[in-house]
Here is the input.
Amino acid sequence: MKIRKGDQVLIIKGKDRGKKGKVLRGFPKEDRVLIEGVNIKKTHKRPKKEGEKGQVVEVAGPIPISKLKLICPKCGKPTRVGYKSRGKEKSRVCKKCGGEI
Ligand SMILES: [Zn+2]
Here is the structure.
């Protein structure tokens, strides 16, 4: 996956378009990531026991990475990611400034 945990990303599609956030978790199988403070859904938690109150819980939903752009930590711009291989290691490269991410 091009986006990793800890990356800063910009949302470019959907209702959260224009928001920025940090990737908290990746779901590589689904090509989705969880972003801090983005795509918050309110869900109602039912009381488990009698006498308990139901609660409204805010849960962040994962977003498909096709809706995101990585923000390059070097130049601070939203960018596409390229790859550069150095021997066996593959590193990510910013397409805008050429810096390694
Ligand atoms: Zn850059």
